[in-house]
Write a structure and sequence with these properties.
alpha+beta; two-stranded antiparallel sheet; Ribosomal Protein L22, Chain A
Length: 123
């Protein structure tokens, strides 16, 4: 049973400025995510934007937004050819409180926009 759906869109050019501010990146992104982002070369801003959109989409899927959730506790990682959400700390607690037991994520980006959708599933 689906317990929540969230979607978010982020302008890539908004994130281009963030690439030059490591302290800002470290505030919102786990080091593993930052490593993935910078490994993308010319696509780094798109990678950053789509990960930020995914974090926002997760909050929307919860139905509570991101209140009381540390964004670094939501990690958007590259799995075996598909993105994965890994939760820790405050984000894991929020998921448990929601009753969801599975998460699904889809990411896409084009030159100007990055979009993410998160679906939460319960038992």
């Amino acid at each position: 049973m689906i317990t929540g759906i969230g979607i978010d869109i982020v302008r890539v050019n908004r994130m281009e400025r963030w690439l030059n501010n490591l302290k800002l990146l470290q505030r919102y992104f786990h080091n593993d995510e930052i490593e993935i982002i910078f490994s993308r070369g010319k696509s780094a801003a798109q990678s950053l934007a789509v990960r930020f959109a995914a974090k926002e989409a997760f909050g929307k899927a919860l139905g509570t937004g991101l209140a009381n959730i540390t964004l670094k506790d939501i990690m958007i990682l590259s799995g075996d050819g598909k993105p994965e959400i890994e939760l820790r700390g405050s984000a894991q607690k929020a998921l448990e409180k929601s009753g969801a037991v599975r998460m699904h994520i889809s990411l896409t980006h084009e030159r100007e926009n990055a979009v993410a959708i998160v679906v939460l599933e319960g038992t």
